[in-house]
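Illustration 12: TetR family transcriptional regulator.
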Amino acid sequence: MKDKIKLRAIDMFLTLGFKTVTMDCIAINLGISKKTLYNHFDNKEELIIESTKLLSHYISDAINAIKTKNYNAIEENFEIKKMFSDLFKTSDTHSIYELKVYYPEIYYTIINREKERYLVNFRENIKKGINEDLYRKNINIELYVFFYYKLLFQIKEKSHSQKDFIREEIELFEYHIRSMATAKGINELEKQLTKLLN
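Figure caption equivalent — predicted structure in token form:
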């Protein structure tokens, strides 16, 4: 029951907003009493923390599942991007804004927790791409990881909607890969961009 509550709560938080969704709303949506809800979670903050942790585990498992498939580094990036787009297609940056404004401690805890995973994934992908001759061998991996992370989160902070963020992120993504790619990597990038746009 606890996981069912967390799953429904995170879906509602991402779709409607972390401040907007109340414990009453969640209880009604699940068809349970508020007492039952409070038997599992002491307050809304605890529910936000627990539901975002569950989402984080889900994302981590989904990324690991993609990595076990036989994708090249560029294709793997596109598959991860598709997974994120599918997962957050009903959410809006307004909900993240609410989390940041009304629950800043939780927001920054999540950002700091996710930062390391992002950096590890970016680093591993660049190394994989170099080994596959898709990315240039002489690049400064740590600098490219740093640049991409900084730019990605700048876009996320400034985007007014999830739609804007997805569009701008694709442009950043293309820019990032082109800056590292060999001729072989450019061909693979063009192939993946064509697939994405069709």
